User: Fold this.
Amino acid sequence: QVQLVESGGGLVQAGGSLRLSCAASGRTFSSYAMGWFRQAPGKEREFVASISRSGGSTYYVDSVKGRFTISRDNAKNTVYLQMNSLKPEDTAVYYCNTAGYWGKGTLVTVSS
Assistant:
């Protein structure tokens, strides 16, 4: 069993920044790749970014490349998503994922 708890969402103006965190417990955190997904109102959940077990490899959806950065701290069992230059279209509930487990999400709202 894996528990994932996201935090750091909120309301921000376009062009602003937020840092999301996902704290994991229940398994050896460093054994698994981690990912962030998001679901905007009325849309399907989509992949945003992922990071390998060691943190050496990262992947991003094209729409966030150059603006978002995923990172992890295996000593703290936490994965982060630094989001800069936010746009209204980034508004969504952001979810943390690993090994088939999901957190409950954190809401990010970007106002124009």
